[in-house]
Records
---
Amino acid sequence: MKREELALSTGARHGRSATAAARRARVTVITPPGRFSLPRWTELWEAREVAYRFAQRDVLLRYRQTVVGVAWVVLQPLASAGIFSIVFGQVANLSSDGVPYFVFSYMGMLAWNLFNNVLGRAAPSLVANQSLVSKVFFPRMIVPLSSAASVLLDFLVALVLGVVLLIVYGINPGWPVLLVPVWVVLVVLLASGLGLIASALQVKYRDVGYVLPWLTQILLYASPVAYAISAVPENLRALFNANPLTWMLGMFRWSLLGLERPPLWQIGAFAGVSLVVFYLGALFFQSWERNFADVI
Amino acid sequence: MSRAAGKAVVVSGLGKSYRVGRRGFRPNTVVEAATERLRHPLRRTVYEEFRALDDVSFEVPWGEAVGIVGRNGAGKSTLLKLLTRITAPTRGRIELSGRIGSLLEVGTGFHPELTGRENIFLSGSLLGMNRGEIRRQFESIVEFSGVEKFLDTPVKRYSSGMYVRLAFSVAAHLETEILAIDEVLAVGDAEFQNKSLAKMRDVAKDGRTVLYVSHQMQTVTALCTSAIYLERGQLQYYGAVDGALERYRASFATFAATQAVASRRAGTGELRARAVRLSEDTYEPSEDKLIEIDLDANPEMLGQYFVSVHLNDENGVTVVQCDSRNVGVWLDPASAQSVTLSVTNLWLKPGRYTVDVYVCKTGILDSWEGAAVFEVLPVSPYPELAGDEALAAGMVLSDFSYQAVPAPAVGTP
């Protein structure tokens, strides 16, 4: 009540100030989009609040109304690492480069889950938020990008458990551990770039939702997640070494387990591939974005 | 300086086209697209261009509340979606001299699992408020909605009324310089509608600009200072509210004229209505209305068909649907038919009404909108004379009675 009276009495002054404020405000010009246009980075930055709220929503929703809550985050890689160390370490008796098989595959799963979950959650994100895409404007890129936040949180929790495991097994990886944040950024860039493409495609073709999990499943076994690259037969080694995820796993194991440093070219190439994929992903997303509201 | 200086919105040559597959085929999956390509490798996909909006230009000064009216499919919602950047234009240019907030639905971004508090922040940020603005307005939003006690309860446990109130409160506190509102926002009970209208009036008073899409002429008259009339994607009129509404009303008449030619009507055309007659041109509110429909024969058609008649008021709102299936009437296509519909016990309010006739089997055979027009005279069907305000509210009148019995005093067993 009080508010309305106030608004009435100061109506005239408000009128002028609102107009003046608007004059100072930037003029937004909307024109038909070109075929290739770069994302408007300032616009993305201005919408950071939306990204933050999306991320918060994802995190809250995942653990609300679950009994064990955060424990799921560590149970999943623990269980996978356990199974891998039984199947590959005990049954197939593969080498794990001298570290206990369990920690070896746990750290592999850590890196793999980061990549796989960033991609896997970005891909269906636009379709899952279709009511928003067709009802309100905000830079669409925020939807797939912000889905990485909850994955990063999971990664942090699982990493803490990983550190506990290192202490239990008495492994000291040394100074390369400091590079882990850099690797994380690169993995997130790579996976987000692919996620941007997948999410934009899924708006038009829902096939992506069926094909992508199947592809990543194949990729999981084709990458040295649960086994060491040294266990791969010599004649296939070149093929495995062409997989950027092999490089990623080498980098993580170097930093977290103190294993041998992967060749420098792999580190450089991984950084290059990540940046290029992210950039291409953003370009691709941008050129498809203009039709989202019409086809979703 | 930009051309837009001094204007809130400048639109020039704006157009939006959709590509419509000519054969009605639209692949939804990669496999569908691929098999279609394999089956007809040489066929070039032919698209038909559908212009949802064509060469629209206008300028809106600050402090104006602009109503956007037009028939269904005239491009109102498309225009709003272009202005709010939900979809991109195909041609033309829009200049907005300030932030634009869009209220196209109640509860944008609301998630049932989140609490009221969390939803205020999520929805607020999606509507275009930054964190500082939401924090500053938080108390006021909560107070306006009246759900203080349930702020930390997931909104899925809210009653629908509480949900709508909270959702609207967030929207009402949007402080963007330009506000685009779709009429879907005008849902909820009367109190809620009044509240939302009052809020929108305040917005315009503040020197901000409101763009309001609506079918309801009363709200446009009550709220807007000028109006745009759209017809088939083109801007036909921009100026005083009365002028736009006049054109809008006239469009019903021209539409009825084109509909009188059977071949120009929608429907498969297997069987069409030949003529629609009313027992009278004018009725008193409580009178029975008789509608006669002559229907052609089609001996080749199998099975029986039915008719459905809609009565619509001046604003195009369907007041009643009289579907012959409801009373067990099915017609035989073997011979021409003449049916008479008697609408009894329906007390219409004074005004002009249009009659739509639909002939249907499994699909629509003939859709004759505006087949007839009648007027309901401004006389009161009630036994007593009361002021106009005793008749003003509501969509129809009714044969009602009151029975007053003195209530027993409180406290007696």
Note: Chain A is about 70% helix and 0% strand.
---
Amino acid sequence: MLAHDLVARSPFCRRARRERADAPAEGAQPGAGSSVTIADRIDHVASVELDPLHVEAARVVAFDARIGLARSSA
Amino acid sequence: MRLLGPGSGGRVVPGSGLNASATPVPIKPGKIAVLSQSTTISAAGRNAGRNKPLVAIHCGRLAAVDATDGPLRAEDVFQAALRRAGWVSVDTLGALFEAVEAMARVRPQRGDSLAILGNRHGPGRIAAETLLRAGGRLGDLSPATLRHFEKRLQTRSHLSNPLALPPGMRADGWAAALSAMLADRRTDTVLTVCPPSPFVASDEVATALCAVSRPSQHKVLTAWIGGGAMLHAQRIAAAHGVLSHDSPERTITVFLGVLNCRRNRDLLIQMPPSFAADFPPDSEAARSVVGEALTAAGETLSARHTRRLLQAYGIVVADTPAAPSIDAALLAAEQIGYPVDLALLLANGAVFDETAGSLPSPAAIRIPARDLRHRLRAQHPARRVTGYRLRPNGARSGPRRCASASPAMPSSARSSSSPAARPATRARAAASSPCRRSS
């Protein structure tokens, strides 16, 4: 919830809101999802990078995504 | 031994007779505490917020005005954290004092509706519109209450909230009307709006209203329109513990502030759902993916594993087809639509760190592809190219970019991308080179 709240207030969502009223909520989903990925403490996941992230007509999609591993962590 | 400071305002506990501060103003004992701190009070405030109403004023917005390049401003984060910790945030010192007074005089009701009682239509309607503009809610009076007022006011006119009393209403009439409103189970909080009247002294109205509201003084707000002429009435109300202001606008601002305080504290004591109802993450699937990935070499997940892991958290990753040869890559680019970004696929599903971006045509793909292969050979002679990965062009916001492998070209926005995403990506793409390091 907090992640949704934060991302919906971000400059990205403010810009998107000028174009599409529902863009903030959609734009918040990947941000909230990636924060959950970290918060879930999946062992060995060290970083999550979604870049670039595009707002398209029907969805928000990560054009590139990289997940870093930390093999030594438990 | 230094106990306070440096730079501390000191510590004052009037109830214990302690004044270890430089303040020249005597501080009276009371129920309000003031804490001034520049950092790291949120954790303590969160604990205190469970038991006490907390109001904060934060001096950081001026510095935050220019800092809008990141995905989130520090001020946004701060305000969200305050709300989550159960605090009410205000912008001015005046609002701070009003909020503190309101916390002391008004008890948040379980409901959020406001009933408005005025004499004449105008003041009540002004108050109602102020409430609605600010996002508040007007309550509905029960049929029994409306029948009571129809009978008492001897009118067949349609009555509703805000309720207008006749201009000549005497003090006992005000008191009876407020009493009837407070008795209505649908009423959460009542605001009385009193302008000067030639028929009754405002002091008498104030005294009568306070007498009625005594058992329910935390449910009654008063606004006294008329400046200095109504000041005495305002003071009478305040002396009886009834919140009073000189305008309905200020009273409603305070009322909404108290409601926000209650909502924030409700949030604080709840355990909110970690996820939206339509977003059930599949943590087990994610762990399974990572377990598989650990058996392969590399410090990043393969594209396939990355897609599966993010899918478990509701994140869509663009479909980027793998092309086994450069000719197949050209066909894939035609299907995707130019410009495209190109990456090299390696054994075990890994991807070469560097990519070639903003490639606008088939002719522009072959040379960057060759350059990427040369770079791979130079950096990792043992690694083998198994294919090419193409994706729709999109400018990265990250800072990692390498020197250009071919003449820089501006990135035109993709036809499938929303205009919402274009301004930022265009600006960054124009400054970026076609070749960059992606990890």
Note: The two ends of chain A are 28 Å apart (CA to CA).
